[in-house]
Amino acid sequence: MKLLVPYDGSPQSDKALDTAVHLAQGMGGAIVVVNVVPDLCLMSEEIPAGDCDAVSRALDMNGSVALHRAGEKLKGSGVEVETVMKSGRIVDSILDVAQERSIDCIVIGAHGRHKALRMLLGSVSSKVAELSSCNVLIVK
After folding, report:
1. Which of 5, 33, 102, 140 has the greatest count of CB atoms below 10 A from its CB?
2. Superfamily of domain covering 2-139
């Protein structure tokens, strides 16, 4: 079984990652951990054009740190792990990775790190569950 965990470093994504590890260990599965850096400059007129590069660099750095942290958490788990960094629309990117990697189940936290992003983008977990062609486990 191949599991996909969208990971942003939030406590909810940590819970999703822990759940995915437990499932993968029990079934001899593999985990793909993805961090998606949203292109807020294209999605919001609230960010001045001059600030877009700085915002993008900060989000890229946060994403890299989150993926490194996830990889460190999974060392010694006995589970095959792949990490993927994407940029773009969060839901679309998660679904693209799921399709590209032939994912059996997406294990996602009920909500992520950024309340402001949730207000701007809506509930990522709800949209993923609605649009995914594979099973989705939402972890509270």
Report:
1. 5
2. HUPs (3.40.50.620)
